[in-house]
Amino acid sequence: MCSSCSLHHRRRDLNDRGRAMAPGQYSMDAKQHTMSPVVTGATVIGMKYKDGVILAADTLASYGNEARYKDVCRLKKIGDHTLLGAGGEISDFQYLGDLLDEMADEEACDARSVLVPAPPFPLQDQAPHLMYVDHQGTAFEEDFVATGFGMHLGIPLLRNNWKPDMSLDEAKALATKCLEVCFYRDCKAYCKIQIGVCAGAGVEIGPPTPINHFWGHTAWTENRLEDGDSTGTW
């Protein structure tokens, strides 16, 4: 095989296996997609209630499996009538929040004159909407959603207890219960949560609030294996 053919096949093999091209040519792929999350957030609970939508999340950002940052807000206000919550890589959430802020500014300035800006992201048919978008871009609308471990532990509670005509206090209590259950069983959950409310009056994100937890349950403290009982517990 001639040297030119050998070089051609070698380049093609490199492109097929690793796309080893000029430095920086494919660098945007690494910046746009977080393949190995480092600092992550856990469960976010979202649900509609009779007057709007609420989102709830704990304030922990884990560095791997280490509970590293314990005062991180994973809820963000976008415009006057949009509330964003995110689990997973925190840097992706921050980047997405910046992009949405830019979009809100552009919409406000482009819809009308600069002197009289229009409200960004107006309400659709004046009704609350709760949307879920996964890491692959799949989007859908639902009455209640959850991310992370909450998809396994929170969704069953929401299915059994959610009602379309729930009051705000009932919705907050249910969201808190879901995060409490996740805290008991998810090593990346935390005992301090924030609840955001998006309603006709606007968006409000509450302060970090501790949740009640109790670790003295008999099933968690007694060692049953010594009595010949092979039943496992938490």
List the helices and strands and how they pair.
Blueprint: H1 3-17, H2 27-32, E1 39-41, E2 44-49, E3 52-58, E4 61-63, E5 66-69, E6 75-78, E7 82-85, E8 88-89, H3 90-111, E9 131-133, E10 139-141, E11 144-146, H4 150-161, H5 168-185, E12 192-199, E13 202-205, E14 209-210, H6 218-221
Antiparallel strand pairs: 1-4, 1-8, 2-3, 2-11, 3-12, 4-5, 6-7, 9-10, 12-13, 12-14
Helix pairs in contact: 4-5
3D architecture notes:
By secondary structure, the chain is of the alpha+beta class. The chain has one domain: 4-Layer Sandwich (Glutamine Phosphoribosylpyrophosphate, subunit 1, domain 1). It has helices at residues 3-17, 27-32, 90-111, 150-161, 168-185, 218-221; strands at 39-41, 44-49, 52-58, 61-63, 66-69, 75-78, 82-85, 88-89, 131-133, 139-141, 144-146, 192-199, 202-205, 209-210. The strands form 4 sheets. Strands 2, 3, 11, 12, 13 and 14 form a 6-stranded antiparallel beta sheet that branches. Helix 4 packs antiparallel against helix 5 (168-185). It starts with a helix and ends in a 13-residue tail after the last helix.
